[in-house]
Design brief:
- The complex is a heterodimer of chains A (637) and B (257).
- Chain A has 637 residues and is α/β, with parallel strands linked by helices.
- Chain A is built from 17 helices and 21 strands.
- Among the domains of chain A are: 134 residues, Alpha-Beta Complex (Flavocytochrome C3, Chain A, domain 1); 130 residues, Up-down Bundle (Methane Monooxygenase Hydroxylase, Chain G, domain 1).
- In chain A, the strands form six sheets. In chain A, strands 5-2-1-9-17 form a five-stranded parallel sheet. A five-stranded antiparallel sheet of chain A has the order 11-15-14-12-13.
- In chain A, α3 packs parallel to α6 and α3 packs across α12.
- Chain A is globular and about 75 Å long.
- Chain A starts with 14 loop residues before the first helix and ends in a 14-residue tail after the last strand.
- Chain B is 38% helix and 11% strand.
- The chains are: A alpha/beta (637), B alpha+beta (257).
- FE2/S2 (inorganic) cluster binds next to loops of chain B.
């Protein structure tokens, strides 16, 4: 496989403008001759579907929820970055670009990240025009807050519901096009396969989740915007339905999968309270501005936190990272919490938790100030745990949150299968080995509003593919394959539920390929995952029939994919003999426990290529060539 | 704790449906209501019985997917809380819990507790947007928006479209949902341009979907997990009234009928 990133030549700052000029255009009257499938209606998919329809393309959009308004993007809390420099504090496109490249531990593509920073300013304008109720100052202008990994204030927000408001903006733009008949929307419809004709992506196979009917849709191009794969770990901050099915099955049709081992674990989530737990809830990073993180010094200390005297507490972040203290970056804080718990000093019933203590801040600022700053988070914490964090410290623990890896795409956001475009969290493009806060929303909307609408036309003009014929044998075969898979899932009638397999997989992934990975742990995972998968296909119990609303069957298909995908994730983690960003291999650390990159050997994107069932995938490398930035070591001491 | 559940089971849209009794055993106070149902479902499946179908996704109270009536109240009756955020520590050993789907003509049951709320989407498609295309928009700070306007717009925009307001209303009216969107956009300069057209189009669509009339009983506000205020219904009525009036005047001026 040849990986051509199609990065335009010329100076970094002019690449995108030059490229836009060089791209072939489809004239307005011809656009309505092209059909586009968009799978996923989160920020990336909804913005793309609406923008393409506005241009005149005929769009078919799909999501698994009952409404496009419910995509997982809705749950984003904190905010969205943009290089507006409204605060006059020294921000610029270049600074946002640099922060993102550095935050990603120098494992992202320069040209993509620069473009992201450039279009970030247009996103805010677009959202304001749509009626997104961003926070305002008394003078009527837009307000900003600060976020991790940056020294400027460039994060735009709508209370603690930024994702919701941005998604509603995109959903409303999409709804307008549905009303105008330019988008045909298929909610409660799950993509189960990608159809290739003549090597190009020309359609998909879907299942109607109400009737069970399996059908095909044909188009001139297929866009995947189906989100991340964090749920491979079972417990994560993702929504229950988030899955890897569309990207995984496209991988099996030939789309390269890039950097699957880059996963982000967020340090401040509400800890697991028991085996019944179905998901984890994020507590915003901003809490660490006023909360102090600590664990007891003594192992197995079961005293109530208030009974542990000051000199028996270990404020380990302040101790280890005196200059950043409690605001040490996500990956480092997460690993430090794990260390304390592994050492037997974790708190709470499970011993997997540390304290985030507001006692000192309340003493200093008063309870009211703390309530003003974080009241909604304290309320949410109380709903879930039943504890009042004004009186007792919060218990927190790291959790899987975001996935930087995804399908490989070139500068045009096209994968290695021509005609297959991948947007948002589903692609690997902009965050390298670690994503900065408030940058995922920015990337999703950049891809959908401002990149794909330019690049897709060029494919239509230069690709010169005939209109796909939905009765072509490729479509029939894909339907048959999907039906056979469904039949198989329903026929096993074993003894174990789908959930029990998913939980066991999650446990393996978390223990062996979570915050810290070693050659040994990864090799163990690579033994256990195939064994678990084998058992799944012999012993899973899926009830009911296909021709009905069958949530258990939907779930079984997703878990079947996670059971395959997890192996690729671990394979990638095992091959990457370095630590970078969210990928921490314990063997590769500096003396003081920091991630140790190996730029000589690993400054590349790992793009994995499927070789068929039971065969090891082939590794393709896209070298990361830095023309502008010098790769340096991140230090947070 | 151990609980007795009476759960609405209905195979599909044409089945008549019935309440079926289940025992929920060894429920831990830290479980969410939906995790309690997960436990019951795991047990049912172990026994070879089909699990109870219910909708959920984020389980954080923001996506609006979860939807069930618990002991007669949508979302279970905890103030400002979706059922996915309602935890079992608010129940006690031996409780009998009745669980039913949203009931409204415009929300037909698809299976068990799962309903079809696409009527809400069609209301938005009729006019719940600002008609701007991507690109060519003015700078975000070109039009200052008074902070109080932005705050009120945000209060309305907080609606998660779950449909609890409809499920709680004896007339199955969708007024609070429509009011939230109309008010969100009418309070911002960007949305004001089309305010009349929007109010009329959304109300017309609401009526054609088979939602009932609003008699301002306030039951919607009481169950709304985002505490969207009844005041927005008053604003909707004003918006709609003004829009109708303006429409009539314009028609007169144009010499039309
Ligand atoms: C709790 C939380 C808080 C966050 N806060 C922030 C923040 O403050 N700032 C920030 O920048 N980022 C944040 N993020 C990250 C960010 O929200 C996501 O990365 C981003 O929203 C992903 O958008 P997306 O459009 O790529 O995918 P999603 O929003 O996940 O949408 C996926 C879409 O694909 C559809 N889909 C999936 N599979 C299929 C299938 N097989 N068939 C059909 N349809 C399918 C779904 O229905 C959905 O419509 C947060 C994430 C979490 C979990
Ligand atoms: S599941 Fe999202 S609001 Fe309850």
């Amino acid at each position: 496989m040849k990986l051509d990133a199609k990065i335009p030549s010329g100076p970094l700052a002019q690449k995108w403008d030059k490229h836009k000029f060089d791209l072939k255009l489809v004239n307005p009257a011809n656009k309505r001759k092209y059909d586009v499938i968009v799978v996923g209606t989160g920020l990336a998919g909804a913005s793309a579907a609406a923008s393409l329809a506005e241009l005149g393309y005929n769009v078919q959009a799909f999501c698994y929820q009952d409404s496009p308004r419910r995509a997982h993007s809705i749950a984003a809390q904190g905010g969205i970055n943009a290089a507006k420099n409204y605060q006059n504090d020294g921000d610029s496109v270049y600074r946002l670009f640099y922060d993102t490249i550095k935050g990603g531990d120098f494992r992202a593509r320069e040209a993509n990240v620069y473009r992201l920073a450039q279009v970030s300013v247009n996103i805010i304008d677009q959202c304001v025009a749509q009626g997104v109720p961003f926070a305002r100052e008394y003078g009527g202008l837009l307000a900003n807050r600060s976020f991790g990994g940056a020294q400027v204030s460039r994060t735009f927000y709508a209370r603690g519901q930024t994702g919701q408001q941005l998604l509603l903006g995109a959903y409303q733009a999409l709804s307008r096009q549905i009303g105008l008949g330019k988008v045909k929307m298929f909610p409660r419809t799950e993509m189960l396969d990608l159809v290739l004709v003549n090597g190009h992506a020309k359609g998909i196979v879907v299942r109607n989740m109400v009737t069970g009917k399996i059908s095909t849709h044909a188009a001139d191009a297929v866009v995947l915007a189906t989100g991340g794969y964090g749920n491979a770990f079972f417990l994560s901050t993702n929504a229950k339905g988030c899955n890897a099915t569309s990207i995984w099955r496209s991988y099996k049709k030939g789309a390269a999968f890039a950097n699957p081992c880059y996963t982000q674990i967020h340090p401040t989530c509400i800890p697991v309270s028991g085996d019944h737990q179905s998901k984890l809830t994020l507590m915003s990073e901003s809490l660490r501005n006023d909360g102090r993180v600590w664990a007891p010094k003594k192992k197995g200390d079961k005293r109530a936190p208030g009974d542990i005297p000051e000199d028996e507490r270990d404020y380990y972040l302040e101790r280890k990272y005196p200059s950043y203290g409690n605001l040490a970056p996500r990956d480092i804080s997460s690993r430090a919490a794990k260390e304390a718990c592994d050492d037997g000093r974790g708190v709470g019933e499970t011993g997997l938790g540390v304290y985030l203590d507001f006692g000192d801040s309340i003493k200093r600022l008063g309870e009211n100030t703390i309530r003003e700053r974080y009241g909604n988070l304290f309320d949410m914490y109380e709903k879930i745990t039943g504890e009042n964090a004004y009186k007792v410290p919060m218990r927190i623990y790291p959790a899987v949150h975001y996935t930087m890896g995804g399908l490989w795409v070139d500068y045009n956001l096209m994968g290695t299968i021509p005609g297959l475009f991948v947007l948002g969290e589903a692609n690997f493009s902009d965050h390298g080995a670690n994503r900065l806060g408030a940058s995922a929303l920015m990337q999703g909307l950049a891809d959908g509003y401002f990149v794909l609408p330019y690049t897709i036309g060029d494919y239509f003009v230069t690709g010169k593919q005939p209109k796909p014929n939905p009765t072509a044998p490729e479509f029939t075969k894909a339907v048959n394959d999907v039906e056979a898979l469904t039949k198989k899932l329903l026929s096993i009638q074993g003894n174990r539920t789908v959930t029990s397999f998913h939980k066991e997989l999650g446990h393996i992934m978390w223990e062996k390929c979570g915050m810290a990975r070693t050659e040994k742990s990864l090799k163990e995972a690579l033994q256990r995952i195939p064994a678990l998968r084998e058992e799944f296909w012999k012993n899973v119990k899926v009830l009911g029939v296909n021709e009905e609303l069958n949530q258990n069957l939907e779930y079984a298909g997703r878990v079947a994919d996670f059971l395959e995908f997890a192996e690729l994730l671990c394979t990638d983690a095992l091959h990457r003999n370095e630590s970078c960003g969210g990928h921490f291999r314990s063997e590769y650390q500096t003396e003081d426990g920091e991630a140790k990159r190996d730029d000589d050997n690993f400054a590349y994107v790992a793009a994995w290529e499927y070789q068929g069932q039971g065969k090891p995938p082939v590794l393709n490398k896209e070298p990361l060539v830095y023309e502008e930035v010098h790769m340096s070591t991140r230090s947070y001491k | 704790m151990n609980l007795t559940l009476k759960v609405w089971r209905q195979k599909n849209a044409s089945d008549t449906g019935r309440l079926v009794t289940y025992e929920a055993k060894n429920i831990i106070p830290d479980m969410s209501f939906l995790e309690m149902l997960d436990v019951v479902n795991e047990e049912l499946m172990q026994k070879g019985e089909e699990p109870i179908a219910f909708d959920s996704d984020c389980r954080e109270g923001i996506c609006g997917t979860c939807s069930m009536v618990v002991n007669g109240t949508p979302h279970g009756g905890m103030k400002g809380t979706t059922v996915c955020q309602c935890h079992m520590r608010h129940f006690k050993d031996g409780d009998v819990i009745i669980i039913e789907p949203w009931r409204a003509r415009a929300f037909p049951v698809l299976r068990d507790l799962v309903t079809d709320r696409s009527s809400f989407d069609r209301i938005i498609q009729a006019g719940g947007f600002v008609s701007v295309n991507t690109g060519g928009t003015p700078d975000g700070n070109a039009i200052p928006v008074p902070k109080t306007d932005a705050d009120v717009a945000m209060d309305a925009a907080a609606c998660i479209g779950c449909g609890a307001c409809v499920a709680a209303c004896k007339n199955a009216s969708a007024m609070l949902f429509v009011a939230a969107k109309v008010s969100h956009l009418a309070n911002l300069p960007q949305g004001r341009v089309e305010r009349e057209r929007r109010a009329i189009a959304m109300i017309n669509q609401m009526d054609s979907e088979g939602f009932g009339n609003c008699t301002v009983t306030g039951s919607c506000e009481a169950v709304c997990p985002k505490e969207v205020s009844l005041d927005f219904i008053a604003q909707l009525n004003r918006e709609y009234g003004k829009a109708i009036l303006k429409n009539r005047m314009e028609r007169k001026l144009a010499g039309g009928g």
